[in-house]
Design goal:
Helix 1 packs antiparallel against helix 3. Strands 1-2 form a two-stranded antiparallel ribbon. About 10% of the residues have low confidence. The protein is built from 3 helices and 2 strands; from the N terminus they run αβαβα. The longest helix has about 35 residues. The chain is about 50% helix and about 5% strand. The protein has one domain. The chain is elongated, with a radius of gyration of 19 Å. By secondary structure, the protein is mainly alpha-helical.
């Protein structure tokens, strides 16, 4: 549930930060278990891209239930990889490090946009009394 008073842009950026953070935690767990025999690499699934980007709200009790909609934080599942080592471990260090770099870029971009949004809101509030 979103805090009261946040605009849509802030809410969407918060969701991006939450999702990237969740994916980063799963990637970190994979890397931490790179030498664990039998460990199966994990990933976060949010459903298809469109469904993950659209938040369904039930605004009337007569509307269809959205209980089948993807959860906001995704589901952690075993990653499908073509690489299995002799000890049964499926972590691909190169792939995980690439994912980590991508996630870092996404998090940084979203955090910067959020910072700019708050600066814009602060400017709007502070200049309101001057006009």
């Amino acid at each position: 549930m979103e805090p009261v008073g946040l605009d849509d842009t802030v809410s969407q950026l918060r969701r991006v930060l939450d999702r990237v953070s969740r994916r980063t935690n799963v990637t970190a767990a994979n890397l931490a278990n790179v030498d664990t025999p039998g460990y199966k690499a994990l990933e976060v699934k949010f459903g298809d891209t469109l469904a993950g980007a659209v938040e369904l709200r039930r605004t009337d009790p007569r509307h269809l239930s959205t209980s089948g909609a993807p959860q906001g934080m995704g589901k952690v599942v075993e990653a499908v990889t073509g690489r299995i080592r002799n000890d049964g471990n499926t972590v691909d260090v190169d792939m995980e490090m690439t994912n980590l770099a991508k996630l870092q870029g996404r998090y940084s971009a979203a955090a910067k946009m959020l910072s700019k949004r708050f600066a814009l809101l602060q400017y709007a509030v502070s200049s309101r009394g001057q006009g």
